[in-house]
């Protein structure tokens, strides 16, 4: 602890005006001794005061410097991070430039008592649209969620030709009376629905029909804004660790809907095969590093185990 500063008003001492009394008698001698003692005290207090002022000056200087450094540090933190300038959109850097496929994923939450009727209705209508070359779209897969959100149907469509193909299909379906009846009946069975428009990562496989039976896992990742390129860089290497059992089906990222959303679609023979395949990835050198660096990029993640319906090209 530093020296305590003494209040001179409490001592009632007037520094620099100490009176000298001649030692003529005992009374004056006592007064002179008292005066000398007070002068000494005053001198000591004056020195302490000076020291206190110096200490306070130093402390204030240090505090001011610390505050200034703290403010500068906080202020600089807003601008210090350097963003690598890019002259192209993330979507163009991550997709297959020679192709312009657009995907639409639909999530339909069905009334529990209507799920069977809903599946039957979809089996009657969706394959006909998929097979008709009049519509530039393909049904990639259609599933019911087994584990995850219950009583949910998931449909994945591909539009070869991008947004113009999507617009063309929408306009043509409005003229399709069978489809309009399907939509009306479907609406009676749903509690809610949502969709997203997606692009596929260039380093993933393009989803193609496959024979079953299989179960499918849709793993969805909500990334922190600004991290999509970093995610793509790591997974361009990571996908090589997950090809040994042909489990990788497709990888996509959102363009409209929930943004900075990534979907990875996997196929397994059963739940035990899923467990064995995922554990096997950890035995490969480099997989742990990918997980270590990509987990901090995620804000939220979700997993669905899905069973393909009869109408699904992915069985």
Name the beta content range.
15-25%
Mean pLDDT: 79
Helix content: 40-55%
Largest β-sheet summary: 8 strands, antiparallel, barrel
Query: Helix and strand succession?
Result: HHHEHEEHHEEHEEHHE
The rounded distance between the terminal residues' Cα atoms is 78 Å
User: What Rg do the Cα atoms give?
Assistant: 38 Å
Principal-axes shape call: globular
Number of alpha- plus pi-helical segments: 9
What class, by secondary structure content? Answer: alpha+beta
Number of strands: 8
Q: If strands are numbered along the chain, what order do they take across the biggest sheet?
A: 1-3-2-8-5-7-6-4
Uncertain runs are 1-85
What key attributes describe this structure?
about 325 residues; alpha+beta
Helix and strand layout, with pairings?
Layout: H1 8-11, H2 26-77, H3 90-94, E1 101-110, H4 115-131, E2 137-147, E3 152-160, H5 163-173, H6 177-189, E4 190-200, E5 215-223, H7 228-238, E6 248-256, E7 261-268, H8 271-281, H9 287-294, E8 298-308
Antiparallel strand pairs: 1-3, 1-4, 2-3, 2-8, 4-6, 5-7, 5-8, 6-7
Helix pairs in contact: 4-6, 7-9
Structural summary, described in words:
Helix content is about 40%, strand content about 25%. The protein has an 8-stranded antiparallel barrel, surrounded by 4 helices. α4 packs antiparallel against α6. The longest helix has about 50 residues. The relative contact order is 0.13. The N terminus is likely disordered. It holds the Pfam family NIPSNAP. Its main location: mitochondrion.
Compact description:
By secondary structure, this protein is α+β, with helices and mostly antiparallel strands. It is 42% helix and 25% strand.
């Amino acid at each position: 602890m530093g020296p305590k500063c003494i209040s001179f008003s409490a001592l009632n001492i007037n520094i620099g005006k100490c009176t000298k009394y001649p030692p003529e008698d005992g009374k004056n001698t006592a007064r002179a001794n008292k005066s000398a003692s007070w002068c000494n005290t005053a001198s000591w207090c004056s020195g302490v005061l000076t020291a206190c002022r110096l200490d306070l000056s130093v402390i204030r200087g240090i505090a001011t410097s610390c505050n200034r450094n703290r403010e500068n540090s906080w202020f600089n933190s807003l601008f210090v991070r350097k963003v690598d300038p890019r002259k192209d959109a993330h979507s163009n850097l991550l997709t297959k430039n020679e192709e312009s496929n657009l995907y639409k994923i639909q999530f339909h939450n069905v009334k529990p008592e209507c799920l069977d009727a809903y599946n039957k209705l979809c089996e009657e209508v969706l394959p006909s649209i998929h097979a008709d070359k009049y519509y530039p779209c393909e049904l990639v897969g259609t599933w019911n969620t087994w584990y995850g959100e219950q009583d949910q149907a998931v449909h994945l469509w591909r539009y070869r030709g991008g947004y113009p193909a999507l617009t063309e299909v929408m306009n043509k379906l409005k003229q399709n009376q069978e489809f309009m009846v399907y939509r009306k009946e479907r609406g009676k069975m749903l509690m809610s629905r949502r969709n997203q428009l997606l692009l596929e990562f260039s380093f993933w496989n393009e989803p193609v029909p496959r024979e079953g039976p299989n179960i499918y896992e849709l793993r969805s990742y909500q990334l922190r804004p600004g991290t999509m390129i970093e995610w793509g860089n790591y997974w361009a290497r990571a996908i090589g660790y997950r090809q040994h059992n042909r489990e990788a089906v497709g990888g996509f990222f959102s363009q409209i809907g929930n943004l900075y959303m990534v979907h990875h679609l996997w196929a397994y023979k059963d739940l035990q095969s899923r467990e064995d395949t995922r554990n096997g990835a950890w035995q490969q050198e480099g997989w742990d590093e990918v997980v270590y660096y990509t987990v901090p990029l995620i804000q939220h993640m979700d997993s669905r185990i899905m069973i393909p319906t009869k109408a699904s090209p992915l069985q």
